[in-house]
Amino acid sequence: MNGTLERQRDAPCRDSAKHLAATMSKHLAAKRPAPCREAPCPRSAQHLVAKRPAPCRDSAKHLARAQHPAATARSTLPRQREAPAPWSEAPSRNRTVSCLRPSNPIVPSCAGRLSFSILINIAFTTSLHAQTPQPEPQARPEVRAFRVSRPPTVDGILDDEAWNQPAVTTTDWLSYNPLHGDRIPQRTSVWVAYDDDYFYFAFKCDDPEPAGIKTSIARRDNVWSDDWVGLSLDSLGTGQLSYHMMVNPSGIQMDMLNSIAGGEDPAPDWIWDSAGRVNETGYTVEIRLPLQSIRFKGGQNLRMGILFWRRVSRIGVSVAWPPLEPGKWVFEKNALLVVPELNARPPRELIPTATFSTNQQKDAPGRWDSTGKGAVGLSAKVGLTPTITLDATVNPDFSQVESDAFQVQVNQRFPVFYPEKRPFFMEGSGIFTLAGTLNGDQSLYSAVNTRNIVDPRVGVKITGNTGRLNFATLTAVDEESGPSVTTDQIGFGRARTFNIARGAYSIKPGSYVGAIATDMELAGTFNRVVGADMSLKPTANQTVNVFALESFSDTPRTTGSTGSRAGFGGQAGYSYSSRTWNFGSHLEHYDREFQMDTAFINRVGETNGWLYGEYNFYPDKEKWPWLRRIQPFTFNQATRDRIQRGDELFTVDGIRLFFSRQGFFRFDELVGHEPWAGQRFKARRWRIQSNAQVFRWLRFYANANAGYATFYDPVSPYQGRASDVSTGVTYQPSGRLSESVDFERVAFDRESTGERVYTVHIVNTKTAYQFTNHFFLRAIIQFDSSRYQTLTDFLASYELHPGTVFYAGYGSLIEQREFRNDQWITGAGPYQTTRRGLFLKASYLRRF
User: Fold this and answer.
1) pTM here?
2) pLDDT per position as a tens digit, 72-96
3) Residue 687 and residue 728: Cα distance in Å, rounded?
4) Is the per-residue pLDDT at 299 higher than 50?
5) What local confidence, expressed as pLDDT, does residue 441 receive?
6) Three-state DSSP class for 629?
7) Whose CA is closest to 254, among 236, 269, 237?
8) Among 23, 225, 341, 502, which has the minimal tally of Cβ within 10 Å of its Cβ?
9) pLDDT in tens, 203-262
10) Strand ranges, E, within 179-312
């Protein structure tokens, strides 16, 4: 548990029962199209693929959100957003689960609210009666920061006067991933200092085998497979929000904003400095953190929360001090950082932005249509108080500098999810997360999916903290009316306005109650949702998560008609996690009329519940030094789907093996059935997953599954058999060069005739060379046989620090097309370049 920090991706992809049972076949889009509203991006090769490509910058923070506590991390290969299932391969702080048997969710629609209320009572009762005697709480250790008159030089060499002070007194640093409580021979020393403008941290990381240290010069947030060391800082001391900062031996940074509701958010990039040096005894790291980059209340005798951690890549072990116990995360186990006196430094920032792009599209053989565009924009951040911040942006540049990896989009029963990569929306987004979401196991993946805001003209955001209350508001005007609004509907081509408000009140570290309200306005119509959520930890090993939402919608169907409707949605869950075993249960319900335009949701009109259990065996280290853990598991899910008019039932039994060198192997079998268009289709298949860091310079993964699948035609579906094979390698011949290649093949045959319906091949390649910590070149080539497309995407980037960047990029779209009768015929003729584009972008962050 609590391994969401780990980026090693011990499992190469996140998977789900619904994915295995419903989306493996991957052909034509399902009746409910994927609501991944993608924003215009004229300055990226991705714009060459579709009218609304994915809005993003190149934010490669391959970070898993909350997943099952006993599982391992996700793949570096961006994958489709798969349907819920609690047996995904990623670790978690809080798996949200309930305590009803699988049969209970199969209830009539009118009983949804009643079942939901019963579940809440059962969850609380179970959590109280399941408590085991707890040891007496131990006093939190203290770390006292010392003031320096001469600030240390951040060069990775610990020869400054500041580091002549005694190091922080710590007990043993114990492992928390993949096992809890183990000691390692690598020793770590830490120093903490401050002055009027900065915090300073120094780490001395001893290693008896310094030649085995893995490090590289790469882009920020791209070195999770390296050795690293860092800290978690709860600067407000409330046990609700912490800054995670990690540095590899070459000084490359990684950071995340961690919150109770949202878990670890890899999106924010704040300004801080770091340096690292490898030496004959290990490596050393220095960190300088500007006080303007964090939020805290100034004064005397400040008390913050702090925890230190370190990753030793070659043995695949992460350790922490204070030690992280099973079921506990940083807020429950951090030490007290005591600062005698410190004045708060509210932020004041301006970021002017200038962009230029030119694009060409082939209208006919030998004839290109060209367009060019330049724009300027301005973003500002102002600290209204030391703990409340206002962000505003006018004419923002939300262009994407790296295209989303190609994904299989055919025969998808559920929407395809793409992560947010736009800076304005990324920072502080964790506050908008509801309890129990973002873990891949529920229909409602995210209550606020900002990629639904396609092309914002202006945006204003306020985030803050007042004691135990964390809150945020977001308002954005979107130039796009949205893909669900057609030409015959009122509001087509009109701008939408989004308003979102969220608050969460801390009960104790790790527990809170919250409320949310969302609003979408379009040409006199609206969609409004209000709700509340709660996350409680009755004991260190138990978690109860609940949320309830009510939607009110008045949206046009066609010109001259409206549709007013209301709907309920909610879920409740209970989980228990320990070193030996983990158990979870969950129930959720959504009315047919439930609608939330800000959310990413797989489906409505359904009630489902599941039970999950796993047991951990730890082989003798002397006899089996290469085998860390054996984990058999079982998962059972039952669903009443009122849209597809049937019941869904899955049972999955399997085993996971965890090895040294970050190795992982999994085998399982799924048995069950699912409804589609009023018919029942059988689902039975097997799956294998594996991956390992073979050498310091080579990592691989391989996955395969095969069995029964459904062809999701809304009118004439049929039973089929499908197979899905994917594999990939990451090759790092030097600390500066990285090459990754990912391949996936999906095939679907009609069961009754054996006829091949389709075969899809997806290839994603990425090559990057990092000249310095700030400057790199990157090339991406992607191929999708189902769309007859090859995409090339080249980028040069110089980033002094977040906010001060320069990008130059070129992209082209190569399609198999032939010009006949004054029109292009896709899938015929030779491959040829049909679109190409060039973009330039520069921005400068100025602090006052």
Assistant:
1) 0.76
2) 332 322 233 333 333 333 333 333 3
3) 17
4) yes
5) 67
6) strand
7) 269
8) 341
9) 999 999 999 999 999 988 889 889 999 999 999 888 888 999 999 999 999 999 888 767
10) 188-194, 198-206, 228-234, 241-247, 253-259, 263-265, 273-279, 282-290, 299-312
If you ran DSSP here, which 8-state letter would residue 20 be given?
Answer: I
Length of the chain: 848
Spacing of C-alpha 214 from chain mean position: 25
Residue 148 has pLDDT above 80, yes or no: yes
| Residue 129 binned pLDDT confidence (cut-offs 50, 70, 90) | very low
Place of tokens 């009755």: 538
> How many Cβ atoms from other residues are within 10 Å of residue 831's Cβ?
13
User: Helix, strand, coil % (nearest 5) of the chain?
Assistant: 5, 50, 40
Residue 368 half-sphere exposure toward CB, CA atoms < 13 A: 11
> What's the rounded Cα separation, in Å, for the pair 772 and 610?
49
Q: Note if the bond before 178 is cis, omega within 30 degrees.
A: yes
Q: What is the pLDDT confidence band of residue 554, given thresholds at 50, 70 and 90?
A: confident
Q: Rounded distance, CA 72 to CA 90, Å?
A: 4
In angstroms, how far is CA 395 from the centroid of its own chain? 27
Q: Taking all residues of the chain, what is their mean pLDDT, rounded to a whole number?
A: 80
Q: Which amino acid is present at 285?
A: V
Answer yes or no: is pLDDT of 526 > 80: yes
Domains, the chain, in order of start with CATH, read 17-127+348-380+396-847 (2.40.170), 142-342 (2.60.40.1190)
HEC readout, 31-59: CCCCCCCCCCCCCCHHHHCCCCCCCECCC
* DSSP β-ladder status, 388-394 and 188-194: unpaired
Taking alpha carbons only, the member of 840, 41, 809, 804 closest to residue 352 is 804
Q: State phi, psi for 754 to the nearest 5 degrees.
A: 75, 5
Assign residue 605 a region: left if phi > 0, alpha if psi is -120 to 50, beta otherwise? left
Contacts of 10 (CB under 8 A, 6+ apart): 72, 73, 89, 178, 316, 658, 662, 663, 664, 691
Matching residue, tokens 């570290």: 509
Alpha carbons within 13 angstroms on the beta-carbon side of residue 336 total 11
Instruction: Identify whether the C-beta of residue 743 lies closer than 8 Å to the C-beta of residue 769.
Output: no
Fill in the amino acid letter for 112: G
Which amino acid, one-letter code, is at 453? I
Q: Which two tokens stand for residue 385?
A: 């108080």
Amino acid, single-letter form, for residue 335? A
Report yes or no: 215 and 278 within 8 Å, Cβ to Cβ.
yes
Amino acid at 657: L
pLDDT of 556 > 70? The answer is no
Which residues, at least 6 apart from 253, have a Cβ–Cβ distance to it below 8 Å?
220, 221, 245, 246, 247, 272, 274
List the single range of 428-442, 634-648, 673-687, 812-826 with lowest mean pLDDT.
Answer: 428-442
Helices and strands of the chain, counted as H and E runs: 4, 41
pLDDT at 474: 95
